[in-house]
Design goal:
This protein has 337 residues and is α+β, with helices and mostly antiparallel strands. The chain is built from 8 helices and 14 strands. The strands form 3 sheets. The chain has a 7-stranded mixed β-sheet with strand order 9-11-8-12-10-13-14, with helices on both faces.
Length: 337
Amino acid sequence: MQILDSILLSHGSGGVESQNLITELFYPLLEGCVIGGGEDAGITDSKSGKFAVSTDGYVVSPLFFAGGDIGKLSVCGSCNDVAMMGAKARYLSASFMLEEGFLIADLKCIVESFAKILKQSEAKLISADTKVLPKGALDKIFITTTAIGEFLHPHLNLSAFRIPQDCAIIVSGNIGTHGAVIYSNREGINLHSDLQSDCALLYPILEPLFKEEIRLYALRDATRGGIASVLNEWANASNIGIEIEEAHLPILPQVRGICELLGFEAYNLANEGMCVLCVAKEDATKALEILHSQGAKDAAYIGCTMTQNPKKVILRTTFGAKRFLDYPSGELLPRIC
């Protein structure tokens, strides 16, 4: 598929348009320069050891939402990306882009939140930058963070490109929660709910799995594009089929209500404190027990990988029918993370 003449909002949604932009523009022009393989974080080996590195930009709107804000989000997001490769975030760098006229009180709240979750992660800020742009040049504040993660469990070899057939697919919590919160908090949309974003650090609930040497093949935090994007990326990367059970998907009633009201599907909505795990079927029950013991009480088995329908994700509905679960297309939620 040929990319368009100009950038659309949908190119940043995490769906099919995002994938086309990356594979048809960035990868060809950067050929020979890229050592990452399309994972959540790149892996680098040096004399001092093996590290995972991830960079991400955060442009969420609204800046403050139920359960978090852009400061918390920017730390959790990059720390979670290296965690998806099995690494614990040790260092962070950050860039704060500020609009002229942005309230100092709001900036203070954001930096306090940033600092609080950074301390929880046990990572250290080793470099930072601030820039101020004229009013109208950007919308209030954008934050970019880079995380460097250390591999404390060298037996891990996680990759979306080496997922075998007949494995269990597990989610660590409810799906679509962050996206639903952002919509219900969005300016001009008057939805009253006690729903809070799932924005949280993931390494603490995953480390016991690493220590127990559960046979993990891949991890991915389901941010932009939700689990629909994650599962389609895995199916394409490893040339496998994936079938999931709609009845097994943990979705909060408030999220279902928002989706029904606004015509969305929870599989396409972002999460910021939930990940998808590909686990050996023999270890799936133990993996769930560990996740539940770590506070991930809504973790659930949702499906499996298979030989049939390679590069496709099949959703078995609650009525027993089957349909393809495709990449999200278009722009559901601008400024989601």
